Each structure stands twice: as C-alpha cells, then as structure tokens.
TrEMBL record:
Alphabetical keyword list: Decarboxylase, Lyase, Pyrimidine biosynthesis
UniProt signal peptide: none
NCBIfam families in UniProt: PRK00230.1 (NF001273), pyrF (TIGR01740)
Originating species: Methylobacterium jeotgali
Name the record gives this protein: Orotidine 5'-phosphate decarboxylase
Length: 228
C-alpha cells in the first residue's frame, strides 16, 4: 500500500546528462520521491545515478524495456537488481517476462510494457498486429499475470481491462499522463493525473510537463495534489 502520496508520481529524468539530471532533482526538491531513468539518461551514463539516488532515499525506476533472448533478459535483470532500483521494465512478451521474473532479485519489481502510449490502432496495424490496441493490451496483461511479474505499464485508457486481467495485487503504472491543458506532444492515449487516480492507477509517470515547467517543484506538487 502506498503511504506517501508523493510515491504515486514518478518523474521521468529524460535529460541528456547526469549533471542536468542532478540539477533538476535539486530544483524539484522534496516535492518528489520517485525518479525514472530511461533511454536518454541511461545511455549517457545515467545508470550510475541510480544507486546514488537510492542512497539519498529516493526510489528509482529503470525504464529500459528489455526484450531479447531469454538468457540475455534474465541476466540483464539480474545485473540491474544490483542497483537498488524499485522498478525495471521489459516488453510484455511471454518469454521475456518469464525470463525477467527469474532474474529479479533484491526487491526489484518487473513491469511489462504492453503497448506504447504513442501508438494507436493505425500504428498497431502498421506494425503487423491484427488485434486492436485494447485487445492486445488485455492479452499481454493476462500473460504478465501468468508469467508472475509484478505489474503492467499501460495507458490510462486500458486500466480497467488490465486490472481485470492482473488482479488487485499487481501494479499498474501509467505514462502518457498530462495535466489538464498541457500539450500532449507525441502521446496519443493520454489521461490527466486526476483521471488516472480515479481509474485506480498505482503510479503515474510524468516528464515534460514537469521538466519544462518554469517552476518544476510547483508543477510536481500540483500533480501530487491531483493524485491524492
């Protein structure tokens, strides 16, 4: 159970360097307890920041969406387990999820990414999927439960179907969250923080609306208030 409302908000540190990430963390201050390290920062040396943040009392989400042969995924997750992070993502393919579940250790939770929030049904068809986004997400969520991983990453639009598939004991994490009136950028399946909380989402991931704000701390506080 989430005790601190700030834990519901994960701020995506989608920045080009550790120095810029550290500066943003200082600007945000105590408004946030949870940070995500994704591709941009991870490939700029950002994985080394994870244990530093953990030592400072923050929670860390490693968003690298692993997907490879089973042994590679299992060993990759096992290595990432040494960073002290709370979450790591893999693509929600059955073999990948089962392998990740075998590799997790030290309390690391594995989240399966169903369908990216920048995709809609046209994008799915272009990629060769005959099923609709909603059907594909529901199927992958059910497979995640069978694989024994800890939760699902999906858009707010699919929360009800995902919860039905994975039950109440697993986590739902939603990216593509935009405060009311915000630019949705390249996202296509979006939801406001207040809508996400009402839908039963456990954690939301927000990047640009906080990072690009004139006052990132106040932007984060406003989102936390909407999630409370």
């Amino acid at each position: 159970m989430i005790q601190d409302p700030r834990d519901r908000l994960v701020v995506a540190l989608d920045l080009p360097s550790i120095a810029e990430a550290e500066a943003m963390i200082e600007r945000i201050g105590d408004a946030v307890t949870f940070y995500k390290i994704g591709y941009r920062l991870a490939y700029a040396g950002g994985l080394a920041l994870a244990p530093v943040l953990v030592k400072r009392g923050f929670k860390v989400f490693i968003d690298v969406k692993l997907h490879d042969i089973g042994n590679t995924v299992e060993e990759g997750v096992r290595s990432l387990s040494g960073l002290g992070a709370t979450f790591v993502t893999v693509h929600a393919y059955p073999q990948t999820m089962r392998s990740a579940a075998r590799g997790r250790a030290n309390g690391l939770k594995v989240l399966g990414v169903t369908v990216l929030t920048s995709y809609d049904d046209d994008d799915a068809r272009e990629a060769g999927y005959a099923a609709s986004i909603s059907d594909l997400v529901a199927r992958r969520a059910a497979q995640a439960a069978e694989a024994g991983i800890d939760g699902i990453v999906c858009s707010g639009a699919e929360v009800a179907a995902v919860r039905a598939a994975i039950g109440s004991d697993r986590l739902i994490v939603c990216p593509g969250i935009r405060p009311a009136g915000s630019d949705i950028g390249d996202q296509k399946r979006v939801m406001t923080p207040r809508e996400a909380r009402a839908a039963g989402v456990d954690h939301v991931v927000v990047g640009r609306p906080i990072l690009a704000a004139a006052d990132p701390r106040e932007a984060a506080r406003a989102i936390v208030a909407d999630l409370t």
